[in-house]
Structure to design on (318 residues):
């Protein structure tokens, strides 16, 4: 009998440990609720779980909850300081708009301060600073439309984020990254000073993005050990800019249609040991030959170069 009791206790302890580890947020979640937001519902619809503004829904939520927002235009700036999921009904018709916010200072459309939060399914528009600002860890920003923003489409700080399937058209940088161990994938970015920029960022994966009509498609400053793979970098004045950055890997990208007075790649300032493999270059005359990427050594006008030893013969479908 003692052996049976001991065995049962061991099984209970193992299951308890598994359940704790199964919650990656390491949060104590007594219950998980869905709260609803609608800016145009009849008065009797509103109660302790149904709200008129997005911020009311967030303020009444707890870690682990979902705040679901019905289609409508919400003239408010959003702050997420809890580990919640903020979900829009339809990204084209669930709109967070800054045009009626009467403040002089720079305004972020949606600021994520909590870790383990999710933002999905919104149009964020008409803000004079940043569309979505993330300054925590382990967040997911996906399937949003970000447009008419004066500064950054998405500003990313921290570690272990997933940024995917966003459509970004802003005046500044599309996605500005000062983050580590994050994945930036399948975003469509057009018409910016920089499509994607990394600054003091390490071990990120930038893949399957479409980056067009920017001054610089991808700009990497003082950032090491990142993977840039299968991106379509097209119609930019400069395709890729590398400054003081090392050990980055550029695999199977399309780097095409740069300005006749711009460059496909700009190398500056001790950008050593970067790897180039299987990229497609439309300015490569004979595609079976290695592609020589000419840059500058340090701050002096001394030539330096990288080599893509096996460039692709035709562009990738991305």
């Amino acid at each position: 009998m003692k052996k049976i009791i001991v065995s049962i206790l061991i099984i209970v302890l193992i299951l308890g440990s598994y359940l704790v580890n199964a919650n990656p947020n390491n949060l104590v979640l007594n219950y998980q609720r869905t709260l609803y937001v609608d800016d145009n519902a009849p008065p009797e619809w509103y109660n302790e779980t149904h709200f008129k503004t997005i911020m009311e829904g967030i303020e009444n939520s707890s870690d682990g909850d979902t705040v679901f927002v019905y289609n409508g235009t919400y003239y408010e700036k959003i702050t997420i300081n809890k580990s919640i999921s903020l979900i829009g009904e339809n990204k084209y018709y669930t709109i967070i708009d800054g045009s009626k916010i009467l403040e002089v200072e720079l305004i972020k459309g949606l600021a994520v301060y909590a870790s383990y939060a999710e933002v999905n399914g919104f149009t964020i528009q008409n803000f004079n600073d940043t569309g979505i600002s993330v300054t925590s860890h382990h967040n997911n920003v996906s399937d949003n439309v970000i447009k008419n923003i004066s500064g950054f489409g998405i500003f990313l700080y921290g570690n272990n984020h997933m940024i995917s399937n966003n459509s970004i058209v802003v005046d500044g940088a599309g996605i500005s990254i000062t983050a580590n161990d994050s994945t930036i994938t399948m975003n469509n970015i057009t018409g910016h000073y920089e499509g994607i920029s990394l600054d003091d960022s390490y071990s990120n994966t930038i893949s399957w993005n479409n980056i067009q009509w920017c001054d610089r498609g991808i700009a990497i400053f003082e950032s090491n050990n990142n993977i840039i793979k299968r991106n379509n970098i097209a119609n930019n004045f400069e395709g890729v800019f590398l400054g003081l950055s090392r050990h980055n890997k550029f695999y199977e990208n399309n780097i095409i249609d740069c300005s006749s007075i711009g460059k496909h790649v700009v190398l500056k300032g001790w950008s050593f040991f970067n790897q180039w493999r299987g990229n497609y270059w439309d300015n490569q005359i004979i595609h079976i030959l290695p592609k020589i990427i000419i840059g500058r050594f340090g701050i002096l006008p001394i030539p330096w170069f990288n080599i893509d030893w096996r460039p692709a013969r035709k562009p990738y479908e991305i």
